[in-house]
Design goal:
The structure is a homodimer of 428-residue chains. Chain A is of the alpha+beta class. Chain A folds into two domains: 4-95, OB fold (Dihydrolipoamide Acetyltransferase, E2P); 116-416, 2-Layer Sandwich (BirA Bifunctional Protein, domain 2). Chain A has helices spanning 53-60, 109-114, 116-119, 123-145, 184-194, 230-251, 253-258, 264-267, 278-287, 300-307, 362-371, 380-387, 400-408; strands at residues 14-27, 30-36, 41-47, 67-76, 84-95, 149-150, 156-157, 169-172, 175-179, 196-204, 217-226, 275-277, 314-317, 340-345, 350-357, 393-399. An eight-stranded mixed sheet of chain A has the order 6-10-11-16-15-14-13-12, sandwiched between helices. In chain A, strands 1-2-3-5-4 form a five-stranded mixed beta barrel. Chain A has a three-stranded antiparallel sheet with strand order 7-9-8, with no helix packed on it. In chain A, a hairpin with a 2-residue loop joins strand 8 and strand 9. In chain A, helix 4 crosses helix 6 and helix 4 (123-145) packs across helix 13 (400-408). Chain A is elongated, with a radius of gyration of 26 Å. Chain A starts with 13 loop residues before the first strand and ends in a 20-residue tail after the last helix. At the A-B interface, strand 1, helix 3, helix 4, strand 6 and strand 7 of A face strand 1, helix 3, helix 4, strand 6 and strand 7 of B.
């Protein structure tokens, strides 16, 4: 058995391919059968007079998504997807597919999400998730080449996270455990062991938010770097994003084309990226008609408004302390703000990275934990990192689905994760 | 600032290194300060008469794990860790470390686990977790090179898994959700989209087991391959394991040496691996004195007993249906067994892989789901994969911590995950 992606090597030879029926067109005594095998599409041609009756009958009765083995000789054909077609001598039905639910017509999104396990087979979904997989490998490669050590942080923990009240809880042999909202605090602990580290895995937010930018379970990649300040942090972020975009352009051309992504929007995405302080961003937003006031967080609509000014992702840095997490380092030049950055994608795709220098002063960190009324005892180990050889360090979290939504130009992040979890969706 | 790993490039130059104090020895008017910066260790030499009093005093008062910046000229010295030392001209204390809890003496394991956030800094832990990170990247590379598409499967789901009764549950906006024990069933759904896929992430077992082979949260890598049978599945497993071992030998030599791993035990690990049927394994175990009877699962002690016969990992294949999961394919030549394999590591490290061909017959699968009294409605989507274009396919799960324990020769898998979760441990 050969895979469709290798067909060019078998020109003139008889081969067998196994896959799923994508399309069948019968024109009198000739039929065209397009089969997808997961590595590509190939068209098989059935000619009635050249085939045993049985093979013709099986071949022309196939329905969408039936699984088949087709055998035939490979020949070049520019009109065939992939450039090669097969003149079929045999068709074997492996698994029938009566009344396949997803038809080549418009379906409602809830119907498609209910059938996500089948919807994955459609070309747009394959393209989007293919880019996701490439971006993940690109991230691993980028960090591995730079000697970052991967440190897998736990999902189950005591009440550690950014946003109390949006935690999923579970009974852990009689104790309460919570699902991680971030691996960052654990990654910080690994810096003195490995200097530069990262975690990359699922994170959880029990937010009752229904916007197209939110999933209750999403993947986040979080590097943490010892002896790097907020400026170095932003420089690293723009290098990483430039690399990811370049690699997607280089290796995912066919997927981006299928999704009709305007590649010119991505081609100019190279470091450095523009930077604007939170304070300047608020002024700019007010000029553009926003009602935002200094001290408020920048919401999704305002992020979109701001991103209109730029063709590149833009850093908004040094937010007010009150809208950011307790662990961000106080700005020594302006104690009302913290040394942080949000990276906002162009074209209205919103925040794809949130980063900061971390508060490395034990007393200032304790003050913030108490201000936020966080359970101090749960942070005992985290405070130890400031008790024993505290050090300047910075890091960030990259939201995988949002990043891939931007790169692929897709509107809904729920399509960029294989099995989305939304407030009303736990199935399939 | 430079990193220790790059010091050789700066011979004869004055540089600054930042890191944590590993050791300080003061011999009268000369002091030797070993600093770890996460990329390596370097020895700094302080000579009293060449330094301002203040620098000498700061340098010779440092305590374990204080964070420092040291400045000095780089010179070759074979006795220094890494081959270079620094003649120090300046020492800056960044963060003191009074009474660091982990001293260079024996500590009890519970104490060390309570201080896991600091214990990570010790050389053995760094070595073991460094090998873990290399193995993870090796797995991604191996699969990427073979066009496997990574498909991230959900953690939160309805009651889907192998072992009912060992699930962690959470309230999901009024519904019950459970933490995934496996991503396999979801990976199966992605095969018709991408042919060969894998997932790699945390999985959960609420097992009240305290053996050294169990974690409640552990990382598993699960490939799934369309049109691959049980034999092909085993062939793929042995190729993957051979690659991982070769890469660890090639790139983790210093870590394996530090852990005093007998490398000769790994050097011969190349495919093919021996195979023994479950039935023959039971006979062999009985000969060796085990009380196991046909139809029982092979426990940890018996796995160790069996592994004594082999220098290589050994496949035990075709177990009785009754001890294996419902989704494994019935053996057409012996319906009392299923087409599965466990890969048992040598030297008593136990099962590192469990794999099988999947049941692709809708009726047989339904029969098994009913036999096991599983909630049929939760498997509706999984059954759809057999309703619409069912196809032969196989896959397996590789337990990351067990694999790394074997490669590194460590006894306890809890040391091969950064923050272990055990039945009595959720902190730090």
């Amino acid at each position: 058995m050969v895979e469709v992606k290798e067909l060019s090597r078998y020109e003139g030879q008889e081969v067998t391919v196994a896959g799923w029926v994508d399309q069948l067109r019968v024109h009198g005594k000739v039929a065209f059968l397009v089969v997808r095998d997961g590595t590509g599409y190939v068209q098989g041609v059935l000619v009635r007079k050249e085939l045993p009756t049985e093979v013709w009958e099986i071949g022309t009765a196939l329905t969408q998504e039936a699984s088949v083995k087709i055998t035939g000789s490979v020949r070049e054909d520019a009109r065939s997807p992939g450039g090669f077609e097969m003149g079929l001598s045999h068709v074997e039905l492996l698994g029938p597919s009566p009344e396949y639910p997803i038809q080549p017509k418009e379906h409602g999104v809830e119907f498609l999400l209910d059938h996500r396990h089948l919807w994955l087979r459609s070309s747009q979904q394959r393209a989007g998730l293919g880019v996701r997989a490439e971006v993940e490998q690109a991230i691993h490669d980028f960090l591995y080449q730079r000697d970052f050590v991967r440190v897998d942080t736990p999902i189950l923990s005591g009440a550690i996270g950014e946003h109390a009240g949006t935690l999923f809880a579970t009974d852990y042999f009689g104790e309460n455990a919570y699902l991680a909202q971030t691996g960052q605090l654990y990654a910080e602990a690994a810096c003195p062991a490995f200097r530069n580290v990262y975690c990359f895995g699922p994170t959880f937010r029990a937010e009752k938010s229904k916007t197209r930018r939110h999933l209750t379970e999403f993947w986040m990649m979080e590097p943490e770097m010892a002896f790097v300040d907020s400026d170095g942090n932003m420089r690293f972020q723009e290098e990483l994003i430039s690399y990811i975009v370049e690699r997607a352009l280089e290796r995912c051309g066919s997927q981006l084309d299928l999704l009709e992504r305007d590649r010119s929007k991505l081609e100019g995405v190279t470091a450095p990226f523009p930077r604007i302080s939170y304070t300047d961003a608020v002024t700019r937003l007010q000029e553009k008609g926003s009602s935002i006031k200094w001290g408020e967080d920048i919401g999704g609509a305002d992020e979109t408004l701001l991103s209109e000014d730029y063709d590149l992702p833009v850093f908004v840095f040094n937010y007010p302390r009150g809208v950011k997490a307790f662990y961000m380092k106080q700005n020594p030049d302006d104690p009302e703000t913290v040394l942080c950055d949000d990276l906002i994608a162009p074209e209205g795709y919103g925040e794809i990275i949130g980063g900061s220098q971390r508060e490395d002063d034990l007393e200032l960190l304790l003050t913030r934990i108490r201000e936020e009324k966080l359970p101090e005892e749960a942070y005992g180990w985290y405070l130890d990192l400031r008790r024993y050889g505290t050090f300047p360090h910075s890091g960030f979290g990259l939201g995988l689905e949002r990043t891939v939504a931007w790169i692929t130009g897709r509107k809904h992040i729920r399509e960029l994760i294989p099995f989305p979890r939304l407030i009303n969706r736990l199935y399939p």
